[in-house]
Amino acid sequence: MERADENLLPAVYKEVSVAFNVGPTDLGYLNFLMNFLKSIASPLAGILALHYDRPAVLAIGTVFWALSTGAVGVSQHFGQLAFWRAVNGLGLAIVIPALQSFIADSYKDGTRGAGFGLLSLIGAVGGIGGSVVATLMAGKDYWGLPGWRLAFIMVALLSLIIGILVYLYSTDPRRIPGNHLLDDDDYERLHLSNKDVLPPPSIWMDSWVATRSVMKVKTFQIIVLQGIIGSLPWTAIVFFTMWFELIGFDNRSSAALNSLFAIGCASGAFLGGVLADRLSRRYPDSARIMCAQFSAFMGIPFSWILLTVIPQSTDYWLAYAVTLFFMGITISWCATSANNPMFAEVVPPKHRTMIYAFDRAFEGSFASLAAPAVGLVTERIYGYDAKTVNIANGSAEGAYALSRGLLTMMIVPFGVCVLFYSPLYLVFKRDRDNTKFAAYDTVVVQGNDLVPLGTWGLLDFLCLKGVSMSLSSDITCKKKRITEKKLTQISMQGFTNIASTET
User: Fold this and answer.
1) H/E segment holding residue 146
2) Which domain holds residue 96?
3) Were both Cys, which of 55, 233, 465, 499 would link to 410 (CB 3.0–4.6 Å)?
4) Where is it mainly found (predicted)?
5) How far apart are CA 37 and CA 200, in angstroms?
């Protein structure tokens, strides 16, 4: 339903343009408002997920987007439409990071690509449904109500029902004792990091600590940097439906082309995730990065063929269909094969929602500029004029101008994205290993409780320096995991004596 909601407005750009007498730039600003709010409000999901079960967080976000989607459908002025589109972004900001961390906690390290791919595949079904239904309904009236308005109201009602069901019947993986879907390392890290051994900090202090922890991870910094650029083409793609209709394709033909592209993207996301999972077992430090670079590179030739090589005529529907399908299969790997699985490996389990939230915050806030940028390039450089272009009957001049605007916002970002993945070959392994080490030896015993010492405690420091020290008669630490069972044998006084002696 989240993907269906996102695809509604782009699918009816033509009808909205006519109803409110606006052009590509104004339509781009609508998309900008939603994406910008969705981005800057994403950390709210991380804060909520630190202290509340994620099904409740998902339900809250779903209610926000359901109410705002229904309000979009009954808006009478462009200002109202813009306001409710922004509120819609707030709801999506809460849902998306919480859902991503939910998936990350539900799959082992070597299978997360398939998990995120399956999520993308299911989401694509909703996206296709929302886009196709909205496009087909847009040209008709139902009981005196324009079809595009009714489509928004229908999706709002369905979203509200889904939100209620999620709250009532979903269980947070963190609350499942002995979760068999987590591997041994993940389960032990999760158990230790969630141990209630100190008085709970304030929600703001806890959030600040999580934020600082996430921001220091080099892998996060690099993926966000490439994502800021790599998200631009995907934001520009929302104009595909309008471009098809300017070429002269009717609603059915445009919906079919969008569906083929969406099916290709869904299949490709799952394929890329599964392929990266298998390759990562053989090349754990580089396979996911290589898959992402291949996928980003393929966006360059396919964008060129789609927007410049194929003649912009309704006689070439089949050529557009084949190109869009294979383009979708090859350019949709990055998130499922690399970004999302790698994020889950470089932070502790309790910080996963936060890292996905800040990824959305940084990437989405900059990528949201792509939609109005396409409109500005189309109108200012290539001469698109909303007042003279006849959208209803198609326009060769308008289609040409829009295609060149799209090309500008796709070719260059895809190329830069390929280059920006390269530093991950140097930093990903180190960040992943740091997270695994940090989870086990950051506690000592005080009475009957396990007390955290910090992300890198003194035990870590001594062990990684190669210092061999006897913590009890049967425990020796030399770059080895310290489990909770062994830690119960260590006294606080004994640890203090060891620390003062060795340092």
Assistant:
1) strand 145-146
2) 2-170+186-193+202-425
3) 233
4) membrane
5) 30
Q: Could you give the number of structural domains in the chain?
A: 2
Q: What is the Cβ-side half-sphere exposure of residue 165, based on CA atoms within 13 angstroms?
A: 7
Helices in 377-457 by DSSP H: which ranges?
Answer: 396-420, 424-438
Q: Which two tokens stand for residue 389?
A: 């272009």
Q: Are residues 262 and 331 in the same domain?
A: yes
Query: Whose structure tokens read 């004596």?
Result: 497
Which residues are CB-contacts of 111 (< 8 A; sequence separation ≥ 6)?
277
Helices (H) and strands (E) in the chain, counts: 23, 6
Place of tokens 């390269």: 422
* 132 in Cβ contact with 10 (< 8 Å): no
d(CA 339, CA 220): 9
Q: SS3 for 183?
A: coil
Assess whether 149 and 266 both reside in one domain: yes
Eight-state DSSP code of residue 173: G
